Amino acid sequence: MIQDVEIAQLDPRIIxxxxxxxKATLSDAAYTMEIYSSILKQYPGCLELRKKLRNLQLxxxxxxxxxxxxxxxKVTIAPFLKKGKEDPxxxxxxxxxxxxxxxxxxxxxxxxxxxxxxRALGILTTTAFALETIKKIQPKDLNNIKSLAxxxxxxxxxxxxxxxxxxxxxxxxxxxxxxxxxxxASVAAAMHRGKWEESEDFRTQLKDExxxxxxxxxxxxxxxxxxxxxxxxQAYDKVQEEPNNINxxxxxxxxxxxxxxxxxxxxxxxxxxxxxxxKGDVSLEEKERTLTLExxxxxxxxxxxxxxxxxxxQEWKKSLETAIANKKQYQFGQLESLVERxxxxxxxxxxxxxxxxxxxxxxxxxxHFQLAQRxxxxxxxxxxxxxxxxxxxxxxxxxxxQFSILKSEIQVMDERKKDAIYExxxxxxxxxxxxxxxxxxxxxYSTDIxxxxxxxxxxxxxxxxxxxx
Length: 469
Description:
The chain is mainly alpha-helical. Among the domains are: 7-138, Serine Threonine Protein Phosphatase 5, Tetratricopeptide repeat (Alpha Horseshoe); 220-278, Serine Threonine Protein Phosphatase 5, Tetratricopeptide repeat (Alpha Horseshoe), CATH 1.25.40; 394-469, Serine Threonine Protein Phosphatase 5, Tetratricopeptide repeat (Alpha Horseshoe), CATH 1.25.40. 73% of the residues lie in helices and 0% in strands. It is built from 25 helices and no strands. The chain has helices spanning 12-23, 29-42, 47-59, 61-64, 67-77, 90-103, 108-121, 124-137, 142-155, 158-171, 177-186, 188-193, 209-217, 225-241, 246-259, 262-274, 282-309, 314-341, 346-358, 362-372, 379-393, 396-409, 415-430, 434-445, 454-465. α22 (396-409) packs antiparallel against α23 and α24 crosses α25 (454-465). It is elongated, with a radius of gyration of 30 Å. The N and C termini lie far apart (95 Å).
């Protein structure tokens, strides 16, 4: 493996040589690039130098001519295409790739060679840089963006990974990989902390030693924190003994969830889904989705509490907004993917419909609510939202039909029926049918005077009817 090294850490004589090359850049860029290339062969882990070289190569690429150089790059690269660990000499491949780039700086395949060889050599920062360079040349190459996002996750650069996820969505809103990238980025820390074999003591896996001690003091039964530590250890041992048994992964995730460590809970469900038996397990997919939403909700609550403590803190407000946006982005991506893969699961359609309704995308949500009525569990709620969507679009007559169905079908005056009758009154009021609206509002008022603004509406109606003195 090759170690990352900065220019300042190089031999002083090499540093002086680089300084001389830097000064010659304006007068003889070709000489500077030659020096950079020569030194880079000796120190392939010097990303700082590789970046300096690449900047010059791309800057002067147009002056070298595209025809012959581009042709040469395409012709000579074929024999050197290797993939990661299959490459018997990745360092030699790295040098060959640099030679190709020197002849054709926009040679995508050569930059990919750099990425693959660097990964094989263990210098992921260089892998990321190579993929970043490809992104500059081909900014809408989704496969490259996804590869870059995955490398960012491995490097722990979660914000950059999420940024790539957002970029994928902007290019192709229906790409299901974006939400997966953002989700894995949000739990990347847990993926690294999950390496139990590197720890001699279980306690080092806990987020905070003081927190662990406090929980132990409060433990009374096997279901408390101390008991959970033992259960987690046992479940982990079972995973090691039977790595193909996804039930052990599931159990380990459950224990972490009960412990309050959602990041590790998600990480172990992800591990389960990577196993052969877990790849097609819908229940694992749903469990991961539930845990991830819980993780987002927890983050939102924390930022909300921080904002409540310091309302003027703009950074915390921005963090809260980001947390809410990240959850929404995840939900949209996940549900769109689920609806596409399971078009007859009307529960997913209902959930997606609600998100679209909240975004005031009433045209898009209508079809989902219409189909969601086929699911008995959400039928009445789907009708309610369908009526609301029609109403918000101004289709009051169609909305009245939906709210009337609920009014007649729901026998008990519960919250859902009050909602339907109130919305029914709003439809009549917007159509100018004040008497009909009053009758609906009165039905709600007589049951729950505090429901929404129904009291104000009733009072306003009687004031208008009162004789003028």
